[in-house]
Amino acid sequence: MKRTNERENRRVEQWSRGLVVAAFAATAFGCGHAGESDATSSAGAPPVSAAPAAPGVATIRVGNRDVEVELAYRVSDRARGLMDRRELPQDHGMLFVYPDDKEQSYYTPNMILPLTIAFIDKDGKITDLVDTDPESDEGLGGFAYSSSPARYALAMIQSWFAGHNIKEGDAVEIPEFVRKLPAEHDPVPDSGY
Questions:
Q1: At the fourth CATH level, which superfamily is domain 2-179?
Q2: How many whole angstroms separate alpha carbon 26 and alpha carbon 13?
Q3: Residue 95 burial by Cβ neighbours in a 10 Å radius (0-12, 13-18, 19+)
Q4: CB of 172 within 8 A of CB of 126?
Q5: To 10 degrees, the CA torsion angle through 121, 124, 125, 127?
Q6: What is the value of pTM for the model shown?
Q7: What does the pLDDT read at residue 183?
Q8: Residue 92 has pLDDT above 50, yes or no
Q9: What does the alpha-carbon distance between residue 45 and residue 64 come to, in Å, rounded to a whole number?
Q10: Where are the domains of the chain?
C-alpha cells in the first residue's frame, strides 16, 4: 500500500510539473496553430545517418519500420507536442528528446488524437507503451508516465505499435545526431523523482 501511495504521489507531482511546463511554454513561446511545425518537410527528410542543417525531423527505425519523426528537444516544442493536431500521416510521429535519464511524464494539452507513447531508454529499448485518451472523463487523457528511466518518448497514432507487432523491450534505432541534440531542461526544478 505504501508503494502505491508513493507512486501515486510521484505521478501527481509529475502531472503538476507537466502543467507548469506547458503553461510556461505557452506563455513564453506561444502555442502555435494546428498544422504548424518548426520541422522541415518530411519529403526532404535525411536518411538515418545524415543530420539535417537545422534539426527538425529525422528518420528512426522502430522494429523493422522506418518512421519519420518531428524532433521535440526544446522546452517549447515538448510543451506544444502534438497539440491541436487532427491527423498524423502513416509512419509519422514525434520524438521527444529529454536531457536526462529519469522517469518521464508526457502531457499535451488540447490533444485531439488518440496516441500511444513509447518511452525509450538511452540505449534505444522501449520500456513502456502507454495509450492516451483525449476523450477521458477526467480531462487528463493526454497524460502518460514512464515506469523506469527514459531518455525519449515517441508519440504515434494509437494502435500503430500493435499493428506492427512492436512491443516493450523492442529496439529503436535513433541516429547519432539526434542523440547529441542539446535537449533543454524544463524550467521547473526537479524534486528528485
A1: Protein of unknown function DUF192 (2.60.120.1140)
A2: 20
A3: buried
A4: yes
A5: 30
A6: 0.69
A7: 86
A8: yes
A9: 18
A10: 2-179
